Structure formats: structure tokens, C-alpha cells
Amino acid sequence: MPKPGIAVFSEMYYPHGWNAYIDGILKEHFEVNYVLRALEIPAGQHKIEFKFEPTLIKIGGNITMASSILMILVLCFGIGHAFLEI
Prior knowledge:
The protein is of the alpha+beta class and 86 residues long. Helix content is 36%, strand content 36%. The protein has one helix and six strands. The protein has one helix spanning 55-85, and strands at 5-12, 18-22, 25-27, 29-32, 36-41, 48-52. The strands form two sheets. It has a three-stranded antiparallel beta sheet, with no helix packed on it. Strands 3-2-6 form a three-stranded antiparallel beta sheet, with no helix packed on it. The longest helix is centred in the last third of the chain and has 31 residues, at 55-85. It starts with a strand and ends with a helix. 2% of the residues are buried. The mean pLDDT is 91.
């Protein structure tokens, strides 16, 4: 694109969890025409990506990881305690 512009994507605008990236840099996207999403694009050739990255999924993944580590530690402690008593 020789000049900067606005690209309108024929996808529903849903702000929760969706992130827009231009050349790997997070950019703000916005709603147009009541239902579509758009993105300001600088002049030149760029790689544009929309990624679904909801915060709730990241938090859930961290809770799951912590729970798994805790379960493994409790299991190792139980097995170690059982061998020490024999």
C-alpha cells in the first residue's frame, strides 16, 4: 500500500480476547458499520494477524499448572513418607 489507510475486515467485531498485530506488534482494532472490525494500517507491506488470546484462558492455564505441580509434590511426599516408614 503506497499510503496509510484503514482495512475493514468482513468479520464480526468482538473486542473480548481478540488482539490485532501488524508485523508482530500489538495494535488497536475498532468497530465499523456496527458489526465489522477495522484496523489502521501504515504505508508499506505488512503482515496482519488477528489472534484470539482471552485473559481467562491464560489464568486458567496458570491455575492448572500450579495445581498439577502441587499434586505431583504431594504425591512425591506421600511416596517418600511411605518408604521412610518401612
